[in-house]
Amino acid sequence: MRQTMALVLLTLALLPAAVHAQQKIQPGDVLELTCVEEPELDGEYTVNPGGFVLLQFIGAVEVKGLTADEAARKIADTLVRQQILRRATVRVKLKGEALPPMQPPPVVVSGAVSEPGEVSWREGLRLAEVLRAAKPSVVADLTRVRITRGDGAVESVDFSQHVEGTNQANPLLLPGDAVFVPVQMAALDVTVLGAVVKPGVVPFKEGMTVRDAIAAAGGTRADADSRNATVRLATGGEIRVDLSTEQAARRLAPGDHIVVPLKPASQFIFVRGAVARPGTMPWEPGMTLSVAMRDAAPIRDAPLSRIRIQRADEQGKLQVLTANFDRILRGDAPDVALNEGDIIEVPYPVESTRTADFTAIIGIGLLLWLLFGR
After folding, report:
1. Which of 29, 96, 127, 217 could crosslink 196 through cysteines, CB 3.0-4.6 Å?
2. pTM for the whole structure
3. Is residue 54 within 8 Å of 48, Cβ to Cβ?
4. What's the pLDDT score for residue 209?
5. What angle in degrees, to the nearest 10, is found between the helix axes of 2-21 and 350-372?
6. Per-residue confidence at 267, pLDDT binned at 50, 70, 90?
7. How far is 36 from 25, CA to CA, in rounded Å?
8. What is the rounded CA–CA span in Å between residue 170 and residue 161?
9. Number of neighbours of residue 83 by Cβ within 10 angstroms
């Protein structure tokens, strides 16, 4: 009996903290947002009836059902993914709650490393320690390690000259620095980066054109600014290429880099659910569901026959349309034209939902047994 009462009291004591930790954002909530790198984003934002907040630079972001920390991470990821900021340190709290203390932005490591990610910053942090944590891969080019400072300044370090136990070729790092370790470029490589489906290195072939290289990278995405691609020449300098013209037939040389930028956009659609890249997506007249699905990348086993599209009519009344994307892919049904502001929802596989429900039931049963069954 004493054990049961103790468990009940412990559960009741933990309930307020659990409820607070699990508090979800709902329509009508007022969020207080701060961004270290872009103070113009600082302010209060009211969640609209659809569950979105409208932010400068990036448009609408869906936050309904998220915690404040989850919303902050989503907004930061969107700012970086849309190339508004190189790095975004965002805090979000429901109005009236205490704001957690701001921690120094971590150092971000990417490129040819086995463990990319963030390293917590502290006084005296140097490049050698960060690289040890990130574990450069066998193809890493340590002669051209690039450090991008918070103010945008770029520093190149030949870390191959570093001598263990000294500070030679081992600079101090500052909060928010980004460390990039390039790949040793083979003689027959062309790099395609930016708004393409599969950015990265593609093998060079004799006679390869800009169009060929982009096709090898999966083609451009819907949000690509195809008229303003850049080719950085291995011999030095760069040229602008309009991919919609015969400029795309320009021949490449080994070591050339192609960058396809994102196009500026003021109109968006929203994709959520069982996709690898959820969030806002630039919209333009003529955009279809096939284009949105290609860029959002549905996860494996997602039931594409039951896609839902939420759309407001001319009177602002919400409509829900359904689309069988499996039939569209087979050519058995016409593609669906999208409107600005559409919300596309891809359902999750039934098995994952059942597993989550089963886990919740087991957890509740175990708690009841601990409280009353012993």
Report:
1. 217
2. 0.35
3. yes
4. 95
5. 140
6. confident
7. 22
8. 9
9. 11
Residue whose entry in the numeric block shows the structure tokens 């009741």: 12
Token pair for residue 131? 């690289």
Total residue count of the chain as it appears in this document: 374
- Written as six digits, the tokens of 212 are 């060929």
Cβ neighbours of 246 (radius 10 Å): 8
Longest C-alpha distance within the chain, in Å? 83
Torsion sign, CA atoms 298, 299, 301, 306: negative
Q: Is the model's pLDDT at 6 over the cut of 60?
A: no
**For residue 317, what are its two tokens?**
């009344």
